[in-house]
Amino acid sequence: MATALQGKRIAFLATDGVEEVEYTKPREAVESAGAQVDLVSLESGSIQSFNHLDKSKTYDVDVTAAEADPGAYDGLVLPGGVANPDFLRTDPDVLRFVRAFFDAGKPVGAICHGPWTMIDAGVVEGRTLTSWPSLRTDLANAGATWVDEQVFVDNGLVTSRKPDDLPAFCSKIVEEFAEGKH
Fold first, then answer.
1. DSSP state string for 76-128
2. Residue ranges of the chain with pLDDT lower than 50?
């Protein structure tokens, strides 16, 4: 498992308000499998993570969405947290970045509120996915089919509902990133 993602580069797209465990656990999983990881965000500097509604640690940003080249990455992870995807979904550079992964057929993982950003990127129509339950109507209105499952995979798109689903989510994103383009 330590080399399943050797030579792969994975982007984690997050900003202030990211749910810390939804950023750190998937990052640890892909790095443990041999991937190089970059934190892509709205601005340079650092982002403030949260543990539910309480501030937690900060994390250094590697590159902004405006400067990031989606072609340089083999996969994308969209962690949740309520504020994080809500900030991301209004940024045109973020939406361009996210769309590029879907256009290229590259694997993407999104957990909890992470799919909100995908709605505004226009990439959920016709897909089946899961998320935090409050996104169900938003996803349906965007043309997706919502399911209540621990982890769901739709042609390289891996989604999960909440932090309790992280073991299954982390295992499945490593598997999908190892498979590559779909």
1. EEE---SHHHHHHTT-HHHHHHHHHHHHTT--EEEETTTHHHHHHHT--TT-E
2. none
